[in-house]
Amino acid sequence: MTTFRYRAVTAQGATRAGMIEDGSWSLALDRLRRSGLTPIEVTEAPAARAASGPVRPNAAARRVVANAISELAVLLGAGLTLDRALAVAADNIARPAEKAAFIALGQRVKEGATLSRAMAEAGNLFPPLAWAMAEAGEANGRLDEALAKLAETLERGESLRQTIGAAMVYPIMLLIVAALVILTMLLWVIPQFEGLFSDAGAKLPMATRIVMGASHAVRSYGLIGVAVLAAAGFVANAWLRRPSIRAGFDRWVLRLPRIGTLVTAMEVGRFARVLGSLVEGGVPLPDAVAITRRTLGNAHLSSAIGRVATRLKQGAGLTASLAAEDIFPNMALSFIRTGEETARLGPMLGRLADALDREIRIGVEQLIAILTPLITVAMGAIVGGVIASIMTAILGFNDLALAP
């Protein structure tokens, strides 16, 4: 399927812009006409071709882009022209890469391109959500409002990422310290006793022999083990790049206790936040769902949302289509059903995203509350076991010496 950007006129004379997925340009054109629209322009979306381009921007780049878009919305609301607002926003960016990107946006706008098209041509710096909402704002003449909503959506998403990342710092540091302590004992502490126990041989306690053997293995084959693990990681990463394998792996992740629930809440929350922003921005629901699908990181959920988008194009309802896939929790379906029945789908999706954000924060706190003592106890048990095995051998050394 290819994604096309379109601009069309409704039967009432209103201009509508958005995106549509179909097998070819002619099929997309026919489908627009069957839906009662008169196409003005239908072109292949540049972002569809850039999907396999550079890696996604890092956290710092995402924050800069969100701040710049927020500033751009304020400048447009104050009455500045788009090219002038882009120039001012670019001047206030300190990071060279993002500054150059906004300067390029301003240059493309001066050449006659729309902001949405310029964003789509900028590669992966701007997500599909960004240029879709910009295009909706251009179509309804409220670009400043659309960009303000876009900036809020990007900032909320980045805030949630930072919250989760900050919460995971302590357990990760604890794991690193535990690994360093164990390696220190195996590489430097245990070898100090090898000379003392060299004559005892098989008369040493089983636990002591196991610890001595582990120390010897780490010192002799540690680098080989690291190389094997690195190669295995490389192979696994390449293996997971296959769509069918990745979908199966992501399906398995969703079934894990606690972690699966947390990942589902994160993905559904992102889906609700982005879809709500697009719907409130005036993007037609089938196109909005197709765009939102690209923001999901779980391949299994993304594939299911793709099937939902297809059903929407055939006239089905959003709640019924999501329920048929059996991927969304009942709470999410309840919010979406209420939004459809009250014709307030956008606001209800925003409330759903807020509720899921709170659930994610609680879930992360609970996960850390479980992981932290588990890591601590495991590290203490391993270190204590090593010390106990050495002390047992030392305390029994006289018996070993007198044994026939």
Summed up, the helix count is 19
Distance between the termini: 81 Å
User: How many separate structural domains?
Assistant: 3
Number of strands: 3
Poorly predicted tracts of residues: 47-55
Percent of residues in beta strands: 5-15%
3D shape = elongated
The sequence of SSEs as H and E is EEHEHHHHHHHHHHHHHHHHHH
For this structure, what is the CATH class of the largest domain? Mainly Alpha
Structural class computed from helices and strand pairing: mainly alpha
Relative helix content: over 70%
- Sheet with the most strands: spatial strand order: 2-1-3
CATH superfamily of the largest domain: Type II secretion system (T2SS), domain F
- Oligomer status: single chain
CATH architecture label of the largest domain? Up-down Bundle
Within the CATH hierarchy, at the fold level, what is the topology of the largest domain?
Receptor-associated Protein
